[in-house]
């Protein structure tokens, strides 16, 4: 029997974006408040799992035509890249740097390379979680 | 389209509440992140990602400005010519546009670009009757301009 999921799907259409926005908030809160790349990535994949529950694997693959294994690989590249970038400046591996920059619109913002490392963690967490869930979901 | 804009503003407000900062700056940052999320999930919606449509509107505006300048120069040439050898005439142009506002905008664009003037629209909204200042050499060229206008309007409403 096929049930009508219209309420679940309509609620998902709005809730999905709120969850992802909250995960971005958690990601950027990581430096001063509880949060960070891990919990942010986990919550983003949680939002995609909600999409999977409301729709099916094929629809989600159409909405997000992303190979999550590649997402994990790009995340690792980010993490290793920020670590290796410090070698260019004659400092030990994984030494981070930060500086205040004047970005138009945002004003004086302090940028830290640890955020890029965190972005790597974020992408790896999304990639790994989604790969696990999709692989289990696809097997008969 | 309206749903996407509304959702984006809603997300910007949620961002402000999450940050507990109620200044325009936070709103813009939240709006930007909402835009990114909406762009990532653009295939989720039935209509297109709404920023594409705004780009199409801007494109239509610039096409209009370009045509306005070009055809004003064309009219200037006709006026300054010593011999009056132009042949005015009325022709019908079938249009594929359906909605009322699309036809209105197309008619206004045709009228505002000199050389052509919309006289009447058939009752079934399928044909535009246009008066052309110089019909002999212009009909093909004008039809191509119509196609560019019509295409640009379709790009907006698609």
TrEMBL record, chain A:
This protein's record includes keyword Cell inner membrane: no
Major location (coarse): membrane
Domain of life: Bacteria
Recorded topology in the membrane: Multi-pass membrane protein
Cell division found in the keyword field: no
Sorted UniProt keywords: Cell membrane, Membrane, Transmembrane, Transmembrane helix
Residue spans crossing the bilayer: 12-32, 38-58, 70-91, 111-133
Cellular component, GO annotation: plasma membrane
InterPro entries in UniProt: CPA3_antiporter_subunitB, MnhB
Residue ranges annotated for the Na+/H+ antiporter MnhB subunit-related protein domain, each copy included: 7-131
Protein's cellular compartments: Cell membrane
UniProt record similarity statement: Belongs to the CPA3 antiporters (TC 2.A.63) subunit B family.
Descriptive protein name: Na(+)/H(+) antiporter subunit B
Lineage of the organism: Bacteria, Bacillati, Bacillota, Bacilli, Bacillales
Automatic annotation (TrEMBL), chain B:
Pfam family of the protein (one): MNHE
InterPro entries: Cation_antiport_E
Highest taxon listed in the record's lineage: Bacteria
Keywords: Antiport, Cell membrane, Membrane, Transmembrane, Transmembrane helix, Transport
UniProt main location, coarse: membrane
GO molecular function, one term: monoatomic cation transmembrane transporter activity
Membrane topology term: Multi-pass membrane protein
GO CC term (a single one): plasma membrane
Membrane-spanning ranges: 28-45, 57-80
Localization (cell): Cell membrane
PANTHER family: NA(+)/H(+) ANTIPORTER SUBUNIT E1, NA(+)_H(+) ANTIPORTER SUBUNIT E1
Family named by the database record: Belongs to the CPA3 antiporters (TC 2.A.63) subunit E family.
Protein name, as recorded: Na+/H+ antiporter subunit E
Organism per entry: Bacillus aquiflavi
Lineage summary: Bacteria, Bacillati, Bacillota, Bacilli, Bacillales
């Amino acid at each position: 029997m096929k049930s009508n999921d219209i309420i679940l799907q309509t609620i998902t259409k709005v809730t999905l974006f709120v969850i992802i926005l909250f995960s971005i908030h958690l990601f950027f809160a990581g430096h001063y408040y509880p949060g960070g790349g891990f919990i942010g990535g986990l919550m983003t994949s949680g939002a995609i799992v909600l999409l999977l529950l409301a729709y099916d694997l094929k629809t989600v693959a159409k909405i997000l035509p992303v190979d999550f294994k590649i997402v994990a690989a790009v995340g690792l590249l980010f993490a290793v890249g920020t670590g290796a970038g410090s070698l260019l400046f004659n400092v030990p591996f994984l030494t981070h740097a930060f500086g205040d920059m004047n970005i138009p619109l945002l004003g004086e913002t302090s940028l830290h390379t640890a955020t890029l490392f965190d972005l790597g963690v974020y992408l790896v967490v999304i990639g790994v979680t989604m790969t696990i869930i999709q692989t289990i979901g696809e097997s008969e | 389209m309206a749903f996407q804009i509304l959702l984006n503003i809603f997300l910007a407000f949620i961002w402000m509440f999450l940050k507990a900062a109620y200044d325009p700056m936070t709103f813009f940052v939240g709006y930007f992140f909402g835009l990114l999320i909406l762009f990532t999930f653009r295939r989720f919606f039935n209509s297109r990602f709404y920023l594409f449509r705004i780009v199409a509107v801007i494109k239509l505006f610039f096409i209009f400005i370009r045509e306005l300048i070009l055809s004003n120069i064309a009219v200037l040439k006709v006026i300054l010519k010593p011999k009056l050898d132009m042949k005015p005439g009325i022709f019908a142009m079938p249009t594929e546009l359906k909605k009322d506002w699309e036809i209105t905008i197309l008619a206004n664009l045709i009228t505002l670009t000199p050389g052509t003037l919309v006289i009447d629209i058939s009752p079934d909204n399928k044909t535009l009757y246009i008066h052309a200042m110089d019909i002999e050499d212009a009909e093909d060229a004008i039809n191509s301009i119509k196609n560019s206008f019509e295409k640009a309007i379709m790009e907006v409403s698609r």
